[in-house]
Write a structure and sequence with these properties.
Peroxisomal Thiolase, Chain A, domain 1, 4-stranded mixed β-sheet, globular
């Protein structure tokens, strides 16, 4: 009997209308368009600024797009996993809120927290449900409303991140399409370099935590940069090696969009020409769990059934990893 693989059979995505350009940021903090573009590759990012909106409002249009494209009844969905570090609330999970909003009343769901690697960790988890033979339709979402945890009065982080979400549908396949292999890594010592201090059980929200700006992202960019370049390049090269592949066998590299210089380094290490690398950081910035599925969403018309692609990520935790996928539609 041939093995069941988890094929990606549809992609949906959503970015908010509002664009926050580098020139807008020049008026808000001490920075310049030139600095941001040359150091990160970002020109603008999307921001969901309407009051009362949350990460689920980014994820719902992405899921609805999948349902529409596949002519699916939401009741057929077995499971929804939402990778995010900006859940609507601590609990219930954003996945539950999304299920309710789209009418996926038969789905179980939960959130997965692995920062910028969240989509890869969730994709690997969702694929295992399909491979088990027990579930037929799993939706994996990467969604983050990063503007909700950014301090727009200091220049370090607000120039990097944006809001966005995208999702994929996983279905069983008997012809070998879908997730082939995943190499996922974590290192808890990374917590010192990239975190949010306040609001958890260690430092619950208080007047003091608010005044100390402890609910915003803290990042030591230079240190994270060094770990990210090495982590993402090493894990991608290791994944290729253990599957006896070289860059020539890969149709597309789909890297997490944190910094153009990190993407360049990973592509070089894998021997991939830049024309075969999905890059949309200039338009969306770093949308954390959203970056990789948003690339798939943007490039879906150029992807061909059977293309071998590598998804690669590095993020807070530290967490990092790479996933090999044979494109399924
Ligand atoms: O996705 C999750 C994982 N996160 C990442 O992968 C992010 C990794 N880190 C990075 O992408 C980069 O480190 C940053 C984009 C965050 C910063 O770039 P950098 O080249 O590492 O800059 P830096 O922090 O070393 O700062 C260089 C200079 C400093 O000035 P001096 O000391 O040389 O005079 C900074 O004060 O640039 C200054 N600077 C800025 N100038 C204008 C820092 N931020 C800004 C800014 N605008 N926004």
């Amino acid at each position: 009997m041939s093995k069941i693989t988890a094929a990606i059979t549809a992609v949906g995505g959503y970015v908010p209308e509002t664009r926050l350009t580098n020139f807008d940021l020049e008026k808000m903090v001490d920075t310049s368009d030139e600095w941001i573009r040359t150091r990160t590759g970002i020109s603008e990012r999307r921001i969901m600024k309407e009051p009362g909106t949350a990460t689920s409002d980014l994820a719902v249009p992405a899921v609805l797009e999948i349902l529409r494209k596949k002519n699916l009844d939401p009741k057929e969905i077995d499971c929804i996993i939402c990778a995010t570090v900006t859940p609507d609330m601590f609990f219930p999970s954003t996945a539950n809120i999304v299920s309710d909003k789209v009418g996926a009343i038969n789905a179980f769901g939960y959130d997965l927290s692995a920062a910028c690697s969240g989509f890869l960790f969730a994709l690997t988890t969702g694929a295992a449900y399909i491979e088990s033979g027990r579930y037929k339709k799993v939706i994996v979402i990467g969604a983050d409303k990063m503007s909700s945890i950014l301090d727009y009065t200091e220049r370090n982080n607000c120039i990097i991140f944006g809001d966005g979400a995208a999702a994929v549908l996983l279905e069983p396949n008997m012809e070998g399409y879908g997730v082939q292999d995943s190499l996922l890594k974590s290192d808890g010592t990374g917590k010192d370099f990239l975190h949010i201090k306040g609001g958890g059980s260690l430092r619950p929200a208080s007047v003091e935590t608010v005044l100390a700006k402890d609910h915003f992202i803290y990042q030591e960019g230079k240190s994270v940069f060094k770990f990210a370049v090495k982590g993402m390049a090493d894990v991608s090269a290791e994944l290729l090696e253990r599957n006896n592949l070289t860059g020539d066998d890969i149709a597309w590299l789909v890297p997490h969009q944190a910094n153009l210089r990190i993407i360049d380094a990973t592509a070089k290490r894998m021997g991939m020409p830049i024309e075969k690398v999905m890059i949309n950081i200039s338009r969306y910035g770093n949308t954390t769990a959203g970056t990789i599925p948003l690339c798939l969403w943007d490039w879906q018309d150029q992807l061909k059934k059977g293309d071998t692609i590598v998804l690669a990520a590095f993020g807070g935790g530290f967490t990092w990893g790479a996933t090999l996928v044979k494109w399924g539609f």
